[in-house]
Fold each of these.
Amino acid sequence: MIRLVLTLVLLAAALPARAGVEVAEITTPGELDAWLVEDHAIPFVALELRFRGGTSLDAPGARGATNLMVALLEEGAGERDARAFAQTAEELAARLGYDANDDAVSVSARFLTENRAASVDLLRDSLIAPRFDEDAIERVRAQVLAGLREAETNPRDIASREAARLIYGDHPYGSRREGTPESVAALTRDDILAAHRGALARDRVYISAVGDITAQELGALLDHLLGDLPETGAPLPPRADLTLPGGVRLVDFATPQSVALFAQPGLDRHHPDFFAAFILNHILGGGGFESRLMTEVREKRGLTYGVYSYIADRDAAEIWTGSVASANDRMADAIAVIRAEWARLRDAGVTAEELENAKTYLTGAYPLRFDGNGTIASIAVGMQMDGLPTDYIARRNDMVNAVTLDEINRVAREWLDTEALTFVVVGQPEGLENTVN
């Protein structure tokens, strides 16, 4: 019954997008900073935590330790083994989620007000006192190894791995966050404990909460939840030196359809040209079927089912990247068209109509993202990690609308770089030569 109640509450929390989101900044008695959106309409709270650093904090020789550690957080904590932990979460109707990427460990919690204290205690155990039982380690290790073996035969995964190795080299971004079969097989419980100490620390946590809770209640909750974490964690990785020489790197793989990832240098979220570049990318390859790449590569020539681009602003690097898949006998043509569109947009710019259509879509779609407590909490914690102010939500569409035609076309001339545009192609494409070693 309680599970049904939570399901109904989550559905209610995901109903219509809000016209405005009022974000309050709080500091707990224990000096943790957090953002809060109070909403007492339903007895439910969404809590989001992000710990900066993520899998890039892996110690030398222990690649994959942070990924494995995070996967084990819900596999037993405190006095509860994996089965008891899952059963308690079920009884409380609490939804707890743990994830890791190159830049952050993410923790998501959804709980009913009536079960708040017990749900937070359960979450606290998973963060402060995970068991890392040997049977759980071996079970999750086997799952990770199975995923790594499967990735070795997936062209898109191979392309992603080879592109990362080329672009980022020896930086942690240059290797799989899950590790390799060899590194994961060699991980010990001590490696996992070290990853836990290094990744989950108070000096790198970002917090947002949305729902039925006051600032005073949230302050006490967070100090109880996080107060016993280490004050500092492992050093954050340095900036990455990018290798984007232009040209094509071929990776031979027997498959009827080649997969290509492409990239050039990008720009930081706080660069003055960011919003113009953001709109420019929507027109180039981020706007679905209305983008230039989809129009030219798919609609006019039928070279692919899909092609896209996006600006990736990572903690240690920024790239402008994208992907396309095409039959082996058509991949060379697809790459030629992408290069041509990159150059055409750089040289001729966008039209006034394209700019206005992009603005209309981007400003109209933005409010629809705020469609529930969980989504708002996730957006808010992401804003904190990006160094954005609490009023960004209210000002964002104004910044989109402020971009002029002259500005976006200047950005196209200055940022679109066909000389640096580099393709990593996995397959057996006809008519393509390897130009990047």
Amino acid sequence: MMKQKHLLGLEHFPADDLGKIIETSFSFKEILDRPIKKVPSLQGKTIVNLFFENSTRTRISFELAQKRLSADTVNFSASSSSLKKGESFKDTVQNIEAMKIDAVVMRHPSPGSSLHLTKYIDSVVINAGDGTHEHPTQAILDMTSLKECFGKIKGLKIGIIGDIAHSRVARSNIYGLNNMGAEVMVCGPPTLVPHDIHSLGVKITHSLDEILDWADAINVLRIQLERMDRGLFPSVREYRNLFGITNERLQKHNKEIIIMHPGPMNRGVEIESAVADGKSAIILDQVLNGVASRMAILYLFLGGNQNES
């Protein structure tokens, strides 16, 4: 069991519980390699996926994790719900909980929405992304992937490159990696890196060569092309020239460096296809580790039966 009832973010999340989730993820990854990829660990539990934002990877990953654990899964789509008829968020979620559920996995565009949800329901709440605040399960799968690669997290030097200012993935990774004893450096255009980000205990650079020289692994964030009209960087071409991860740029540094990306990728913008598909990239491993780590999270927060896994 976890020290906290909910998984809302990693800012104040206990390091020993993070370590427990990561180790449990490896146990569940072994199950995913079996011919029958299902265990009865959460049989009888009901989990609602409450998604107010579009999602492909996270939603499918959670659904697969729930089904692999034999939980009953209900998918809620805000676009076809009573919210469209004027029902309040509070009434919607309290009506859902009245149907005797055990947990809610929620993605919502408003920062703090998962915390808000805990005030209305007694079920376990798992944050699947709340605006630009946090995306804790993405950071946990990223750390699981790093542990799998290096055998440790403590002491690693991890670079995060791209739109730091608007990235919930960056924020959760910073909190989680710091908690686990890694060093973090962020890199991007000055308009996309908050001036006070150093207060979170990270190094800052605007030089891609500096971060590539320094890092053991880099997490390359998607450039949100919808922000182009805000003038945060001049052009996609200029961003690619200054901050895009290409084989040519990596070869200049003459070192092994692990490449990560939370997806979806803009190939040819923040990362070129040759890098994304290359031997140093662990992007597809992150996807599989996403299912395993979300199985671990649900299992540990919902009190699954160890003897059945």
Amino acid sequence: MPTVFNFFGIRFVFFSNDHEPIHIHAIKGKGRIKEYAVFQVVPKVMLLENNGLKTHELKMVEMVIEENKDIIKENWERFFGQIK
């Protein structure tokens, strides 16, 4: 599970068996995954799934993804390009 970055206690990760379209998992806390959200990154940032993140956390996560969209795409292409 490659971590792209951390921001205010939320890890932004890909799963090694992920699929297109490009998306990212935002996981709150450490250890066992309890609270998370999944956001599509392209063609536009959009919430796909939420499990326990509060509204203000979702807004913050969406802003972070929007501001780092290019970094996320570059990391996705680098990681998944290696395993094809």
